[in-house]
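Next comes a single protein record:
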Amino acid sequence: YLSLATYEGGHGAFGSGTRAVGAPAALSGAPIRACLPASNGTVSFGDPRVRQVHELPDGRMLVATQAGLYLLVDGKLREIGLDAGLPPGLDVTALFESAGGEWIVGALSERAYAFDGKRWKTLDPEHGFPPNAPFFITEDSKGTLWITGIRGITRVPMAEVRDLLHGTRAKVRA
């Protein structure tokens, strides 16, 4: 739906210079630069360099930026995750929502993070994941989580990630 080439536009808005044709309802048909106006004439979040956007089933939008993960609700952005385990200033490179509703985000820091609705868990070497800066994350029909990035492809059963999130597993077999 959106171009990764973003810029800060006039009147405190950002955009890619394209229209959001075929995009989720929150963006559909409107110039992207007009979707996130700021009330004080500046960009409404710390860093306008947006990498990805993902519409959640309830219509809210996750926005991955080079300075954190944001949630768009009722036209307003707010940074999320800092109180539940995401590090501040995280350069978010990938977004994914699993079939079970967990959120997985990748970061340029060569880590991924999984969210179970309450807290974030780091998917790193300590937990069985190789270092990788993810750029694409998906789950196949067999329940395998695939993470692709600078250092290659990692695959792991999503059930093991859920066990890790629930504290019933210390490491996955990635």
